[in-house]
Specification:
- The chain has helices at about 15-30, 65-75, and strands at about 1-10, 35-40, 50-55, 80-90.
- The protein is an alpha+beta fold.
- It has one domain (about 1-90): Alpha-Beta Plaits (2-Layer Sandwich), CATH 3.30.70.100.
- The protein is globular and about 45 Å long.
- This is DUF4936 family protein.
- InterPro entries: DUF4936.
Length: about 110
């Protein structure tokens, strides 16, 4: 399972967000050993807002306790967030033998 979490921040808060992210990553990796996380942003802004996407993955899967730790640590983060965090969980598709179907992890 992987978690996909998205939210918006004001474009003017991008530098503050980056500083918050730098401070957050060591806390997150200490609390969830082996977790692989990525932060992405939509390439364009809309109405002065950036959409941020977090992807959280663990090579051994995300047990319920780790998901709770992630959600607990990140529930009020970032301070510059405008509106709610939208959390979605996805699991892998069944194995395909078709040569054009590629699966890769995000680490």
């Amino acid at each position: 399972m992987e978690l996909y979490i998205y939210y918006r921040i004001a474009e003017s808060d991008a530098q503050a967000f980056a500083a918050e992210l730098d401070a957050l990553v060591p806390r997150l990796t200490a609390r969830c050993p082996g977790l692989r996380s990525r932060w992405l942003r939509r390439p364009e802004s809309r109405d002065g807002m950036l959409t941020i996407m977090e992807i959280h993955h663990h090579p051994d899967g995300l047990p319920a306790a780790m998901v709770r730790d992630i959600e607990d640590l990140l529930s009020s983060w970032p301070a510059s967030r405008v509106g709610p965090r939208h959390v979605e969980a996805f699991t892998e598709l069944p194995h395909s033998t078709h040569p054009d179907v590629h699966r890769r992890s995000c680490d």
